[in-house]
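Troubleshooting: if your tokenizer reports a length mismatch, compare your output against this known-good record of 167 residues.
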Amino acid sequence: MADHEAIEKLARALVEELTAAGKAVSTAESCSGGWVAKAITDIAGSSAVFHYGIVSYSNGAKESLLGVRNETLEEHGAVSKAVVIEMAEGVLNLSVADIAVAVSGVAGPTGGSEQKPVGTVWFAWMVRDGSKLRSTTSCEHFDGDRDLVRELSVVHALQGVRERIVK
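Known-good structure output:
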């Protein structure tokens, strides 16, 4: 089980590692509601390594703020690999960050389906590699209530950024 102290410790380590590497991060969040950005910006000195945080809870916000294509949303749904990749690319294109993380999921207690039950969360991390963008994704299924699904999503997102810091 995640807790606020563990998230703070993880965010502190992330800010230190980004600082040491001279890298910056941006976030595009849906079900986590800006919690990934909050965790990072709770740490003193994070302004040197955090550029953007966009909460795009509605499909319209995903389209207008991040450039997620309507066709992608209609074909795959907001909680999908295709959408989080477009979210991550969108926020990275808006910022001059080196790494982006995107999160979209079904935190519950309602909204789940047979294909995407409550606790399903998609993640995308996008890294600038010279003039190219490299993306990786992960689909997780977290057990627990809404708060726990969101907490675990924050932890997974932060850990994923840490794993992608190239020094």
